[in-house]
Records
---
Amino acid sequence: MLVVMNASATREQIDAVAARIRQFGYEPHVIPGATRTAIGITGNRGPEGRDVLVMLPGVEDVVRVTAGYKLVSRETHTEASVFSIAGTRVGDGFTLIAGPCAVESESMTIESARFLRGLGVNLMRAGAFKPRTSPYAFQGLGDEGLRILAKVKQETGIGIVTEVLDVENAAAVEEVADVLQVGTRNMQNYALLRRLSRASKPVLLKRGMAATVEEWLLAAEYLMAGGNRQVILCERGVRTFADHTRNTLDLSIIPVVKHLSHLPVIIDPSHGTGRAEYVPAMSRAALAAGADGLIVEVHPRPREALSDGQQSLDFATFERMYATLKPLARVLDVELL
Amino acid sequence: MLVVMNASATREQIDAVAARIRQFGYEPHVIPGATRTAIGITGNRGPEGRDVLVMLPGVEDVVRVTAGYKLVSRETHTEASVFSIAGTRVGDGFTLIAGPCAVESESMTIESARFLRGLGVNLMRAGAFKPRTSPYAFQGLGDEGLRILAKVKQETGIGIVTEVLDVENAAAVEEVADVLQVGTRNMQNYALLRRLSRASKPVLLKRGMAATVEEWLLAAEYLMAGGNRQVILCERGVRTFADHTRNTLDLSIIPVVKHLSHLPVIIDPSHGTGRAEYVPAMSRAALAAGADGLIVEVHPRPREALSDGQQSLDFATFERMYATLKPLARVLDVELL
Amino acid sequence: MLVVMNASATREQIDAVAARIRQFGYEPHVIPGATRTAIGITGNRGPEGRDVLVMLPGVEDVVRVTAGYKLVSRETHTEASVFSIAGTRVGDGFTLIAGPCAVESESMTIESARFLRGLGVNLMRAGAFKPRTSPYAFQGLGDEGLRILAKVKQETGIGIVTEVLDVENAAAVEEVADVLQVGTRNMQNYALLRRLSRASKPVLLKRGMAATVEEWLLAAEYLMAGGNRQVILCERGVRTFADHTRNTLDLSIIPVVKHLSHLPVIIDPSHGTGRAEYVPAMSRAALAAGADGLIVEVHPRPREALSDGQQSLDFATFERMYATLKPLARVLDVELL
Amino acid sequence: MLVVMNASATREQIDAVAARIRQFGYEPHVIPGATRTAIGITGNRGPEGRDVLVMLPGVEDVVRVTAGYKLVSRETHTEASVFSIAGTRVGDGFTLIAGPCAVESESMTIESARFLRGLGVNLMRAGAFKPRTSPYAFQGLGDEGLRILAKVKQETGIGIVTEVLDVENAAAVEEVADVLQVGTRNMQNYALLRRLSRASKPVLLKRGMAATVEEWLLAAEYLMAGGNRQVILCERGVRTFADHTRNTLDLSIIPVVKHLSHLPVIIDPSHGTGRAEYVPAMSRAALAAGADGLIVEVHPRPREALSDGQQSLDFATFERMYATLKPLARVLDVELL
């Protein structure tokens, strides 16, 4: 940390700040400047004490230098993490996850799974529990949805990615799912993160609607600190003033996450744009930008979907998009998984 | 809803959209325009069908006309809601809630309560369970914190406003608290909202960091739809590009909420600005703008606070601020509660 | 400035950075830390060199410590600036500026001026040149508008606040206006700022739609550095995700500007909210928060206004609002000007 | 347009709104609904009258249905626009524009041009006039910069893309430049847009820092309405809460612009990210997403650059990036220009 003093700070104030720093067990380094004095701090292991120092007389600001995450950091774990899931991998190639927004019925779910397996897609997304902005909207089939997912998994061998909404249903979802999805609204639901940090399955952690990269990585740190080392980050668009897409898909997060962390990062172009017609372009962009994969909404008949139909691809469009990803991946020397 | 067709939409496409609207059991009203046709819809009771219609050939957009909330709406409940809590009221005057960020010890909590009671403040905030961005930060005293709050309540008679972080601890918090606080990160934690919709105590619902007013009111609708009619809305700043305050305090939400809903709305200038020095100005502004109250962080010794010290007022400053609110309230013909 | 090195930076890299700092003529102060080394810099007078240092091998980031503005800073000019304008003052009380969005005709302009003067308002806003998002919208009466303003000023004695859109018309506007308004879209139009830095009249500088406080103060610094010491800052709402108001009015900027600068800051609740019904609440809030004044849109017949009618108060509403500001100002011990 | 009435609007209010619509010369279409009445409007050619209608008693909102731009719209000009510039094309392939932020000297400019020409890049960016946030920062070489650009153009044959900051210097820039760049801060500088609408050279119009797609296209409409049909749109990142990049690069705007307009859209990954290390990933993403080209900062020695060094690629990195774009373009069936 670095304490920045006011231009008018007195010698006494500077000394008092230095003394307080020593009380914390840290070392102060006074740096007199042309217009103001700064005090470097060493010996601390985090931002503890910042809140106190910033209030001392003569202090203008206290600047943090080190982020608070450790286990997710690339600095302590230089190699990229790779996870084996349901016969495929995440973190070592470009992994496709696709499927309907929600499990609507057994027949449409199995239809989707067969279609995806036929193309070579090994992970299917589909929600049994749906977080909905309105209490009056379709909330998912719940336990019946889980039962359907278990059956579809058994019959087709496809891996299941599905959302856990709360601690209460975590065990039931964990039994069926190959990847436990945490939605954007729950990125900082710490009770849920703590529960999933003890889960046996990997967690796909969506970025919060307005989360900074540091907050997102700290949420991942909750999972890792609790013991779950298999965390997949997922960018799904953030909230900005822009109104031409449902959210603003922040693809620059891909190289940033690669720089800061060893965890894989995948892209959700369906929520990121909110319109099926923009999904193929953003999917190709995600691949070209170095993402570790996609999670895409696909529905056998989007116009009949109970939720998110507008952003779901139909089978034919998904197949066409998939065909354009293949040569792109080849040229980028990335394996399509 | 209103369907807006493309400029190049054909007669057949328009007819097909109208037919689909009738299948939903609604009535289409074709409105031919100079550059494009629009189709008004009547007979629907919500946005159901929007997702389908927007995907039909020739459709440019489907515009929603009515918001999805009902019980929170001013249209169905024209009078302002007033709640009696711990011997005071919310919704009928300007109600002060103040206290430390967290319960740090019995002595500092009782010290705070006595100070507040001495001033005439009847509701104290103080967190036993703290949601923290980093897993390594102080997370609150937990059950021990609740025990302290119960004791302080008994000894001083002050009402307790404290946060519920998860369903698991809801019952324990409910026993002690007079108002159950839902934090900004949990505004769309639907499992928690459903649980609190069955609680016997009022809920103070903070606005999500990037929530629109509609999303916020729909979260309140979750609470009301489940049976809890006592919901207090709380603006605590939203996330924007602006970096001069911790969050951007959106005071214009006050008249907007008053227009849309009958629920009381209070302001949190401590989180809204993140700096104690800006709290008095924003508190006065909240009162002048017509808010129903404040929730303010006050700490006996902010420089020793375990969390949020930078945004906490010390007793002397709070007292000075309180003294400036009194004549302001009088002039505005509002009772200070 | 403070250079933050990577955790893995080598001794050689640290030495190279220190050497480069010395080449700039500055002094490096190496601060070895537990997880990484930082290097304090003294002797510099601004952020020059930052761009270079941040690219050196082993450097993670370079943190700026001092803002780039000087003449606008409270640190170099501790007393609040007060300007005498058209027989009234700005910066020493709560100054009202009101009037129609645009000069639409001589009769409605003089009608407005007389109404305002009757109430004791000494400064009228009214645009002769209007910046409009669409090239097909009403663009103001131009030179004819200036002629009307000159006449109204002569007949009623009211001071004129009007927008300068470009260098070309600056001289003509300067002749008529008492305050030269720079709109939000032009906050970083440096050709215009340079021209107005040589003007004989005060400048009212609106905050850019997405400007940080530092960018805003640096725009003011352009004006002051060129010789114009009379700069009035004006907050008019910023662009965020929030959609319940036209812009998000950022009232917390008031105490922040007061902390950072000696310049007066006024509030535009009309553009800040975009709806006349929210203007009175936000006007009172601005006064209570310590602003130096308001600039409000008032129109004799808002429903017939050629622009911004939705956010303009009619005379009766303005008068009622004015009546509520008076006792508020008295209680706050501020003179209403 | 569609007028949405309050739930409690009376029959008289509805009739009055309909009557007012007829006064505008439009046709009202009353659509009674279950909870409220809406009134469709036909016969209007834009949003004129909206401001008035929204204020009538009983009116809740007036929804616009058609955007205000015409000449830039894909609806009136279905084929993509292609411009021939300096021996290359924009709008029909993937066009590279590269070069230093600023003309710093003749030698570094000619060095850059030769390097680019050697690679097959036909358009060079380089600013003679630089808009800078601080009045104390390097502002460009001005006329001397233009002289250098003219010489470099003559010697190397490279096309010049350079910024016009104001009307005053427009003629001088126009003489030298092949493309006139309008910066993000000037997107709504209407005096400048009007001047350039009469220029003989194409305009590259950067998106404003917080501009919606409609505002951006309306700024382009200013250029086209004045007679300049050669407008190239350029996304350079927008301002959001996210702090991991200098701006948030909004690549989803690419398919959106392609849907709404016939104008070409190129991407500036240098300003979009602010860090050279993220530029290659974002450049590949832009190509994969369907952009019409790039404008990239390249500098012979970024560490010595007078501005934007941190986001400039050195020659070797640019060459490597260029090498990765080639096979990508081939696979996407796009010509690299």
---
Amino acid sequence: MRVDIGNALATEADPGIPEGALDDLDERVAGAHERIARGRADGEFGYAALNLPERTDPAAVRRAVEGFDPAVVLTVGIGGSALGAVTLTAALGADSAVDHYALDNVDPAHADRLLGALPLSETVVHVVSRSGTTAETLANFLVVREAMADAGVDWTERTVVTTGDEGPLRALADRHGLPALDTPAGVPGRFSALSSVGLVPAALQGVDLDALLAGGQAGADALAGSLTECPAYAYGAVAQALDERGATINAVMPYAESLEPFAEWFAQLWAESLGKDGGGQTPVRALGATDQHSQLQLYRAGRRDKLVTFVRPRERPDRPIPETDVDDLAYLGGESLGALIDAEFAATEASLAAAGRPSVRVELDRVDAEDVGRLLYDMEAACVLAGELAEVSTFTQPAVEWGKRAARGLLGGGDFAEAEAVRDKTEFVVE
Amino acid sequence: MRVDIGNALATEADPGIPEGALDDLDERVAGAHERIARGRADGEFGYAALNLPERTDPAAVRRAVEGFDPAVVLTVGIGGSALGAVTLTAALGADSAVDHYALDNVDPAHADRLLGALPLSETVVHVVSRSGTTAETLANFLVVREAMADAGVDWTERTVVTTGDEGPLRALADRHGLPALDTPAGVPGRFSALSSVGLVPAALQGVDLDALLAGGQAGADALAGSLTECPAYAYGAVAQALDERGATINAVMPYAESLEPFAEWFAQLWAESLGKDGGGQTPVRALGATDQHSQLQLYRAGRRDKLVTFVRPRERPDRPIPETDVDDLAYLGGESLGALIDAEFAATEASLAAAGRPSVRVELDRVDAEDVGRLLYDMEAACVLAGELAEVSTFTQPAVEWGKRAARGLLGGGDFAEAEAVRDKTEFVVE
């Protein structure tokens, strides 16, 4: 991975990082790196995520899906139990004969449509929940089981489970002899893309898991106590330093359709890890070149509260634009879509710089298994670093518990004071 | 449309609107409403958008697509030339036999995959560009034409154009006798969903255009000089008032998969209209219930710089959750996915209120043509109102011109100083 922070310096942008501040920042990075290395060595909760490339056993994943030859793999999970898989399969499996879908919401109309459209007898279901009790995931799984039964398909022959050591889903897998993989110990869901949580659908699509993990391992090997030596830390440190200087929004804008879900995965990583104690950059999901026609006006002329993170492959397959006799468009004819999107990227990056708006350029060589593994690993390391610099509890998400208890109480799943509060809503209705 | 601003009041939230400030705000709304009404009456640029429900001729749209019986409609457009159509077809056409896709980026790999997968002989192409010169759109159209020719399909028999009075696309339509519709006069792209720009694919899917426009007209009829009488203005005024009090981010979170593109459409509307002069709320696209497992931690415990806008249907088709013998999940059995997503919504809304974070609840009766027409119209009216209150030039997007010139220069489409600036990039590379 290659990170260019030139347009985030104070000479170019406001907010921006003064060159003189880079030394102080680098000292903070050195301290944080020591803490992270210690956490990794001790396998501490959360830090253990950065050991996944060497700890994940791709052979175990391949064994769990052995013998399946599906047309479709359906992930049943939510949040970190779905986004990693969606990101990997969108980036790497688009040309596979196996399609990947995720049932990661509890919208009845959507579930109806999806289950009505899928060839259930040729579908493999991957159910993912660490606790085995996630309400949305288990409800969806019950619905999927029933749809399969209604279609005369034996769900016990077509289900793979990834879950923790204990819990209802583990018990279910044991009872029915389902192929079952472990969620990785000490790794929060949003950091688990490079484990069985993210790898099962990719494996069914024929993605090269070894290359993917090798990319992650290259990221691990590159961790070093200075931001000038480690692209992951360069990104994390600059994002955090800009946040401290007022860039409280981080718009992630990949210039590749296949990386659109990456921005969504990043948004969870960043929001749940850093959004606490009244701080944390707000991630915004964007897409180049499309959002030049939607968000660029704001990024260039709105508040000076944004960092734009460009993510782009340096090489991509191309497609020529035919020559044309259409007036005024002759300049496009004989060019290619790749040249056009590259020009759009360069123009947009420069247009922000010309307006003094900070951006960072993150580059992959190309969208392949090794580079995508590296990208995900490096962004996780960047996030852990930013969490250290911000002195937050990176690996927890305490603020979501209130709502979970309230929802459970509303559904009659126990006595929870939170459910009472829901009923006290203050109304001011205009209709 | 029903708007509940109870959780945006200062008694409930920080930032929040003190009850005493509502009167002042309402005076500003009255003044802005007069300005808007005058603009509408004079058909002024931009304000004319709010006349579309009565000005759009659904019969002309139906005539333009008469005789086509496609399996797929493909929109070739970008930004406001695509997002409205995508929003309408996702919300209203999901059960149609006609699929809708948009080619709204210039990613060669994506174009290859999409054109390789589409049944081109059963596809109708809708090309949309007001100027007829939008580089991305015209490049894509040239590529689509060639793909059709390669597949032995006569593109002149399967193309509908929406464009302005003049320009290359109009000339092309005239030359080949293509069905051609006008982009509405005086209406910026992002405000054109309820015109031929947004309606053509919906018409091909059999969406009830009359009901859609009637919904928009109901929004027009409801415009009034007080926020307590007009839900559109209630929403726009509260969003703007919260922006002025520090809620500089507006996270739009529909609780319906079919409204996911609505959040994207809203993001363009809000960003391009209000993101200028160093101000403007940053729109963030979210999705309930999924993003409770991704963004909620940040919304509840991060900076107090966010308004969360919930959008939900009060009724929806439902699907039961089967009874289960799975331990710990008995409370879900016999419930429904609809009850679950409703409980999740209520719990999430209350969880933000309990943490003193402002939110607004926008409700439709159901996701149907009339209510979706109303939703889009009311959000446009809300945006125009917010623009008046913020005293910005709501209907222009001057900040995107720099990049357009730079890209054109880079591609050899003329001599532009901006292209030179691109070559002067400051680098600070870590790899």
